[in-house]
Amino acid sequence: MDRRAFLLSVSTLALSQVITGCGTNQQLLLNVQLLKNSIPGQVVKKFRKTVTQGGELKFTPIDQLEDLFKLLQTWQQPPTNQQKEWTSYLPFNQNQRSPTANLVTLGDYWLEAAISQELIQPLETKNLKNIGYINDKWQQIIKRDQNGKIWGVPYRWGNTVIIYNREKFQKLGWTPTDWSDLWRSELQNRISLLNHPREVVGLVLKKLGKSYNTENLNQISSLETELQALNQQVKFYNSTNYLEPLIIGDTWLAVGWSDEIIPVISRYQKFAAIVPKSGTAIWADLWVSPVGVNNDDLAYQWLDFCLQPHISKQIALLTKSNSPIQDNMVMGNIEIQNLLLTNAEIFAKSEFLLPLPPAVMKEYEDLFMKMKQS
After folding, report:
1. Cα 134 to the chain's mean position, in Å?
2. CA nearest to 183, candidates 227, 225, 233
3. CA 244, 245, 247, 253: dihedral to nearest 10 degrees?
4. What is the Rg, in whole angstroms, of the alpha carbon atoms belonging to the chain?
5. Cys staple from 321: which of 20, 156, 197, 219, with CB 3.0 to 4.6 Å?
6. How large is the average pLDDT for residues 262-284?
7. Distance of CA 339 to the CA centre of its chain
8. TM segments (predicted)?
9. Could you give the CA distance from residue 178 to residue 209 in angstroms, rounded to a whole number?
10. pLDDT score of 94
């Protein structure tokens, strides 16, 4: 899923400015491929100061989660003989495979596929000294079998939220609190929605008291009718530019991802955002280890560093996201505290978008296409 196209954070430094190592002849000690803007440069600098041995720490930002998943796939595919023959003479050839990283950012949505395709390996629990700080909510995501194996370490998370224009709603005399408000007549042709079947069909399911991960869609008799009614409210479907129509006034309300919305409500006072009280979708960014990499103490030192409560809170605040650490669940600065799921009841009702069987996924996609054509 692409949820990063409109990040306006000015607090996150470009990691290219803080990649450490005093020369190209130094031994590479830690190679991390991470999602761009998901780790502040200040955090990398602090970590470098804790590393006592010499050597190079390489943190490479990648634009999209999908690109990181493809990297994991590429590292497990043997190069063809033709690639070996030609690229060996071309040191800067774009087709040349990059070295396998020690750790990679992966979205929770991609985790099941990475495990089933044998792209990642479980982490050594005994080496994760700070894993106990993780909130219990994440256990269903990072553990995928009965043996207690940990497949990833979450370092930040967010959710799908509603952002709205305060000035427009002040004239209406009410403010949105839940998904059901999207169907109110005053909002006809005034809404921007994500162009994403799981998110849109999912919010309708949530309105109906169902799960985002419902598989028996054909047994919900009112689902198609509700989707068609919601479509009458929507002016734009877009997963990258859904906020622009709101900013210029073409729409009054939008549904989107919190890390993209928080910078907007921080910059423009006329906008506010809420987490729907019936629950919402949760996303998380995790560290995973590619298959075949022999991670030493330094990789686990980085994982534990990110799990320290004060570091985790800094990551959350500077990247406009939330911390997975227990103590930080109720800690947020003033500008974003309304988007932290401090309400235990709402948090309990919220869900990760879990992988669905291909046939069920096709049902979601078909329903979504039919909805937009109605």
Report:
1. 17
2. 233
3. -120
4. 22
5. 156
6. 92
7. 15
8. none
9. 12
10. 42
Q: Mean pLDDT throughout 262-271?
A: 91
In the chain, DSSP assigns E strands to 28-35, 56-62, 103-107, 120-121, 153-165, 191-193, 234-237, 253-257, 271-274, 281-290, 351-352
**Continuous segment of H or E residues that includes residue 66:** helix 65-75
Residue 50 · residue 305 · CB < 8 Å: yes
Cβ atoms of 79 and 97 within 8 Å: the answer is: yes
Would you state the structure tokens that stand for residue 86, as one six-digit string? Answer: 């030609």
Distance of CA 374 to the CA centre of its chain: 31
The tokens describing 165, both together, are: 């224009």
Classified as helix, coil or strand, 262 is helix
> DSSP string of 297-349?
HHHHHHHHHHHSHHHHHHHHHHTT-B--BGGGGG---TTTGGGS---HHHHHH
Letter for the amino acid at 141? I
User: 145-174: buried (b, 16+ CB within 10 Å) or exposed (e) per residue?
Assistant: eeeeebbbbbbbbbbbbbbbbeebbeeeee
CB 231 within 8 A of CB 201: no
Residue 24: burial class (beta carbons within 10 Å; 0-12, 13-18, 19+): exposed
263: enclosing H helix or E strand: helix 258-267
Query: How long, in residues, is the chain?
Result: 374
Share of the chain above pLDDT 70, in %: 82
Q: Torsions phi, psi of 372, nearest 5?
A: -70, -20
Looking at 104-243, list the stretches that DSSP marks H as alpha helix, in order from N- to C-terminal side. Answer: 108-116, 139-142, 166-172, 197-207, 223-231
